[in-house]
Automatic annotation (TrEMBL):
One Gene Ontology cellular component: plasma membrane
All residue ranges annotated as the ABC transmembrane type-1 domain in the record: 2-116
Keyword Ligase annotated: no
TM region(s), chain numbering: 39-62, 83-104
The protein, known as: ABC transporter permease subunit
Annotated compartments: Cell membrane
Keywords: Cell membrane, Membrane, Transmembrane, Transmembrane helix, Transport
Source organism of this protein record: Halobaculum litoreum
Membrane topology note: Multi-pass membrane protein
Main location: membrane
PANTHER family referenced in this protein's UniProt entry, alphabetically: DIPEPTIDE TRANSPORT SYSTEM PERMEASE PROTEIN DPPB-RELATED
InterPro entries: MetI-like (IPR000515)
Length: 119
């Protein structure tokens, strides 16, 4: 994640508008604000995808390994017992969480970069 953020920031630092901000005599803090605002959108997208995936995988792994009752254990038992209704409900809930997470990520991206919301 840090490498990706560093690469995105380095790509933005070399752009013309950053050179223009520096040429106009802006302080380093102002230049950093311009760079971070433009590099933040791809970083937020990657972070949201990884967080959603890690949380979902963590639910299944922790509950299965520790035998804790919860969403993951119920889903795994339904798969083992071939209970189609519970498996479909779990799939629907997981998909809904993914869609809501993507919607939240799009809202954050539009807030950080107004150009994205106008497309």
């Amino acid at each position: 994640m840090v490498r990706y953020a560093s690469a995105e920031t380095a790509a933005v630092v070399g752009t013309d508008f950053v050179k223009l901000v520096r040429a106009n005599g802006a302080p380093p803090r102002r230049v950093a604000a311009h760079v971070l605002r433009n590099a933040a959108a791809p970083i937020v997208a990657l972070f949201s995808i990884r967080v959603l995936g890690a949380l979902l995988l963590g639910v299944y792994l922790v509950e299965a390994a520790l035998g804790m009752p919860g969403f993951g254990l119920v889903t795994l038992e339904a798969i083992r017992d071939r209970d189609a209704a519970v498996v479909l409900a779990a799939t629907l809930i997981t998909s809904l969480l993914g869609v809501l997470g993507t919607l939240a990520e799009d809202a954050v991206t539009a807030t950080l970069d107004p150009r994205v919301g106008s497309e």
